[in-house]
Amino acid sequence: MSATPVDSARESLAEALDLVRAAAGARAEADDLVALLVVAEEARRALDRIMVVATADLQRRGTFAERGYRSPAGALSDLLGWERFEARRRVVAAENVCPTTGLGGEVLPALMPATATVFAEGAAGLRHVEVIARVLESAPARRLDPETWAGAEVQLAAEAAALTPTQLHRWGMELVELLDQDGAEPDDGPAPINELRLSHFRTRPGGKLTARYDDAALFAAVVAVIDPGTAPRDADDERPVPQRQAEALADACTQVLERGRLSETGGRRPQLVVTVRLEDLERRAAAASLEFGGALTAAALRRLACDAAVIPMVLSADGVPLDVGRISRTVPDGLRRAVTTRDGGCAFPGCDRPPSWCEVHHVTEWQHGGPTDLGNLVMLCAAHHRLVHHSLWQVRMVHGLPEFVPPSWIDRTRTPRRRPVPVPASTHRAPP
């Protein structure tokens, strides 16, 4: 019996995997093992593309339905032993980056053509495709006109190679919310809920707290008390985040009971940073943001401004805060706030550490003549601060924003990496 194309492919793949395993042997050099990781990731992405294309083809043929499955994800889950979310991830990719069949039987182009291109090239992985699809299905994205929606898809695809899926999702949501300038239609939705439930365990010591805060200002006040104490104590601190948060809240309450006040590192009233783009300022428009709580309504803004430090922060069109112009070795509060507004936490690509866990680093060190001004400062968490000081990673400022140059063993081209800034809607256009 002659071998089928799939049999031949399986045999060739087995031979290739034997070569890969041999290359990972005990005598392999460190650089070879690093290169092998890159090869393995390239192979994984290539296999993902093959599976997505095959899934799309089976969907177009109606094979899953013919064999009794109402859902392609169910068929893949049973066939390959996947969890349903893993199967669904492939189905979502197939529906968005592969050609589809119209009602008349005609072949239609991919719904996300730019994403399809970077996925086919291996620049974006399967999770990136899933994230882009999720962002473009969000409520703000669905309110965009087709041309703006297509332009957002191009922007998301362009950033996929430089961002982790989590970072891409966060940036993508910022992008579509920026593009959705009018926002949702006003309605008489449910009243905001702020509640805290405390219950004692009946059969053992201790108890349980469950809370919900729809009010962004109240939530920001709670987080401002807890967050400084949630940072890992050191590199060996393996407590999970929920445990650190729970113990930080208990510590804050203990300080109040013992001293009648919180320590200097926590418990400051939330400082309100009024972030105004220069073009919006000229139009007499303003937007406000809280470091932890999120967006505020105009009424909440007026309420909080009566009892908080209001810090005006004017941004350029590129999102760069105006320089506070103070020069000293120690970063003053006003300048730290400017760095916080620009970087929003650790600026290292892919890191999501919040500002309260971060330190401000001099790009050109002070002892080497580096000034303490906005153009020479970057916010880094403790881990990435050490990395910049003790590895071959380099940080530099370009057009007022930080970017990071990886060592050659991570990226042979040493292509700089940076957190992207959402572009105003007027500059987004669909591809011709």
Automatic annotation (TrEMBL):
Residue span of region Disordered: 411-432
Domain of life of the organism encoding this protein: Bacteria
UniProt entry keywords in alphabetical sequence: Endonuclease, Hydrolase, Nuclease
GO molecular function, one term: endonuclease activity
Leader sequence segment: none
Domain (HNH nuclease) ranges: 334-386
Matching InterPro entries: DUF222, HNH, HNH_nuc
Alphabetical list of Pfam families matching this protein: DUF222, HNH
Family indicated by similarity: Belongs to the Rv1128c/1148c/1588c/1702c/1945/3466 family.
Name this polypeptide is given: HNH endonuclease signature motif containing protein
Species this chain originates from: Pseudonocardia ailaonensis
Source species taxonomy: Bacteria, Bacillati, Actinomycetota, Actinomycetes, Pseudonocardiales
